[in-house]
Each structure stands twice: as C-alpha cells, then as structure tokens.
Amino acid sequence: MRLLVALALLAGETVWARAIPHEEFRARREALRKALPDGVTVLFGRAERDAEDLRSGFAQEPNFLYFTGWQEPGAILLVAPATGEAPAQEVLFLPDRNPDRERYTGRRVDAGDPDARAVTGFEEVLPVRSFESRLFRALEAYRRVYVLAGTAGAEKVRAMLPLRELSDATEAIGRLRLKKSAREIELIRRSVQVTIEAHRDVWRRLKPGLFEYQVVSTLVGGFLERGCERPAYTPIVGSGPNALVLHYSGIFRRMEAGELLLIDSAAECAGYAADITRTIPVSGKFTPRQRELYELVLQAQQAAIAAVKPGAYLRRGEPNNLTDLVRDYFDRHGKDLRGNPLGKYFTHGIGHHVGLEVHDAGKLLMAGPLEPGMVITVEPGLYIPEEGIGIRIEDVVLVTERGAEVLSASLPRDPDAIERELASRMAHGAIP
Ligand code: GLY
Ligand code: MN
Ligand code: MN
Questions:
Q1: Helix runs in 72-160, H state only
Q2: Residue 369 DSSP class
C-alpha cells in the first residue's frame, strides 16, 4: 500500500483513485447497510462549484466521498440492504455529459459510458434524471428513507416524498467514519509526514524580519511540492500577539526577535487531513517566561496523551475527559502575572477527530468514548493576553488497543530539541 501511494505520487497523479481500492468503498457501503438495515439511504455529492466564485476548486462532500470515492460533481448515491423480497442495492447516479460545460471542466464520466461501472466500482450506474423513479421503486420494499438531516440533499428528498418522514443518517455515518481502516491510517500517516517536512522547511528559513505570508508560502508550497493536493485548512501562522487568535487568518505581520511564532498548519494528501501545531521562538531561543509557559503546555499535553485510550472522552461534561484534565493541570501548575491559576487561559477543547475532514465527521460525534482505530488531535494551549503570549502544541494521535500512538512524534516538541534543531537549521540557512 505504501508503495502504491508512493508510486502514484511519483507519477504526479492524484492518488485518490488508487490509494483506496473499489473493494474498500464497497465494504464501507456494506457497513452502511448493516448500520441502517431498515431503509434506503440517499447521499448527495456536491454540485459544481459556484461559477461566480473562482477562488477555490471543487471539493467533494465528505460523507458521499467516504462511501463512493467519487470525485466528480452532481452525483447521488442510493444504498439499500437486502430484504425478503429485494436484493441489496447500490446505485451511483451521474449527471449527463454537457459538452458546453466540458469545455471548462474537461471530460466527465456519465452513466452511458461503456466503462462507467469499471471506473466507478458500482454495479449499477444510472443517470441522475432517473433518480426519482429509482428511489420510488426502491421504497416499495423499505419503510424508511435515511438522509443527512439539515442538508440541501435532505430538502430535495423531502420535496420528492412530502408524505414520508425522513430519518437522519448523520450519526450512523459519523460512527463509521470515525473508526479508520488500515488504509486510512496509512494515508493519514502520509499527510502527517508531509506536514512535518513542511514545518521543517519553515524552521530552516525562520529568522526575525520574516513575514507571516512567507511562512504560509513555504508551508503550502511544501505540501504541494510533496504531491499533496491542498492545505487541510487555512494555515494559522500567528507571530507575537497574533498567536492569541485561535483561528488567526491574517498573513501580513513581520515577526520580530524575541517573539513566538505559532504555526497551526497541515496538508491534505489523497483526501486525508493532518493537523499539527508547533510554537517556536523566532530568534531560535525561548525567553525564560516563554519557556516556562511552553513547558507547562508540553507537560499538559503529555498528561493528556498518557490518558488517551479506549473509553476515554475528549469533551468537557463527559466522564474523565481530557479537556478537564488539561484545564486542571494548568490550574495546578504555574501562575499568571497576578499570581492567579492558568486554567482560564486554556480556551478551547483538547482536540477532535481527524480524517477526510480536519474536524472529522461533525462536532456532535466528539461526544462518544474513544475506540481503537480512531485518530484525534491532542492540542492544549495557553493564550494570555496580558503577556501577549499564545502557545499551542498539537499532535495527531492514533487510539490503539491499549493507549495511543503519536503519529506526529518526529517533529520535536521538547524546547531543548526545538532550540537545537532551529540552531542547526538557521545556521545552515538553506533557504535565504
Ligand atoms: N487547525 C484547527 C484546529 O486545530 O482545530
Ligand atoms: Mn486541531
Ligand atoms: Mn490545528
């Protein structure tokens, strides 16, 4: 598998089609039929992007993508389990080709193509225009219709079936998505590895006087240079006081000696996100106070990672959750300038799931206990406005049978190791 991904990357192709074979998507659809055994599930892919906004390209709807791997717009998935009367059904609906549009988009696959089944991995591929009648037919054998509640797709189905109550598939699908397969974990490992290399590219060029946008440029260039399709989220590159803004998206500040630089940025490779944050000194050395606070964040992170195991919880309000663990740690260690505890300066949750989306499978699903095969972040931080200091350390962690594996462990977190690595990289100054 690793070889397959590497070969596809060497060939400069998008690795999606080959990184995950049709059989895995079929197995995911089978798991969906088991999870929702009493009805027809309908998922809509994204439509073509809004022609008025040319800033960003098409990105497939992640739930639809999870079950199909299909990257073209305007498609629909229908899945239904076997009943006494009817066999299991899996249908992919594709829009008809449009030669005018194809002058802009390039060739698209449609249901009439002789190789449509081989290309999509579906036994049944039909045109979108036959979706409604096919849905009605499928519903002769099933009581329920599952959709993603609150989406435009759900409204379309409601308009077709005004008298039927629709059921929500969001939670069942989220549960499937949160447990990663071996292939998904391997793809996340690759996104993490590329992200680590791009962070190191920044460390190599870091010096006072550098602008935030130059760091963003190095990160994004580093992701694409290594064969990944895009940043998994808008890079957060906050120098000095900008590190206090959790999702800071400015890029124009010049960084000064003596400041910290918070870099929360990661690649999306073959569809899978990483999510890594490091906070490093612009001139290569932490001041004593920066180091004191940094070490507290690092120790809190180590305590949280040590507590990651099946059955642990992320969110406040749940038993033995990691968010309260970290907040309590900050309350018991260190003080602000007025001698007060630090817990109140940890102003967000401890982490979230990572996968096809950087905040994977919706926030609601962070509620359940952790299970082996889940991939999460552990990201404590302290943001102290009075001191103009913001520090976050964020790693990607795989939940294992007994505990956790830190997938991003090879990017240094220890302050001495960071200073050493910055010293050697900055001294060599590979990038001016
Ligand atoms: N990069 C966004 C987050 O850490 O959740
Ligand atoms: Mn995160
Ligand atoms: Mn992050």
A1: 99-105, 116-120, 131-139, 152-160
A2: P
Question: What is the C-alpha separation between 421 and 279, in angstroms, rounded?
Answer: 13
Residues 75 and 119 in one domain: yes
User: Do residues 166 and 254 share a domain?
Assistant: no
Return all residues near 417 (Cβ < 8 A) that are at least 6 apart. Answer: none
Q: What is the pLDDT of residue 10?
A: 43
CA angle centred on 180, ends 174 and 185, rounded to 5°: 145
Q: Are residues 226 and 115 in the same domain?
A: no
Which of 176, 207, 239 terminates a domain? The answer is 176
Ligand 1 atom 4 nearest Cα: 275
- Does residue 220 share a domain with residue 166? no
Pocket lining: 233 vs ligand 1, CB cutoff 6 Å: yes
Span 240-286, pLDDT tens digits:
999 999 999 999 999 999 999 999 999 999 999 999 999 999 999 99
CA of 246 to the centre of ligand 1 (A): 8
Shared domain check, 240 and 117: no
In a domain, 288, yes or no: yes
Per-residue CA distances from 303 to 296, 322, 340, 399 (Å): 10, 9, 22, 15
DSSP 255: P
| Predicted local distance difference test score (pLDDT) of residue 48 | 84
For the full predicted model, state whether its pTM sits above 0.85. Answer: yes
Q: For residues 232-246, b (16+ Cβ closer than 10 Å) or e, as one string?
A: bbebbbbbbbbbbee
Distance from residue 191's CA to the centre of ligand 3 (Å): 13
379 touches ligand 1 (CB under 6 Å): yes
Output the CA torsion sign for 26, 106, 59, 144. negative
Alpha helices in 179-310 (DSSP H): 182-205, 212-225, 288-307
Query: Tokens 């990105």 sit at which residue?
Result: 59
Find the 13 Cα to ligand 2 centroid distance in Å: 28
Residue 410 has a CB neighbour count (10 Å cut-off) of 11
Looking at the fold, whether 62 and 163 belong to one and the same domain comes out as yes
User: What are the residues whose beta carbons fall under 8 Å from the beta carbon of 119, sequence distance 6 or more?
Assistant: 109, 113
C-beta 268 within 6 A of ligand 1: no
8 Å CB contact between 378 and 304: yes
39-44 and 76-80 as β-strands: parallel, antiparallel, unpaired? antiparallel
Ligand 3 centre from 124 Cα, in Å? 40
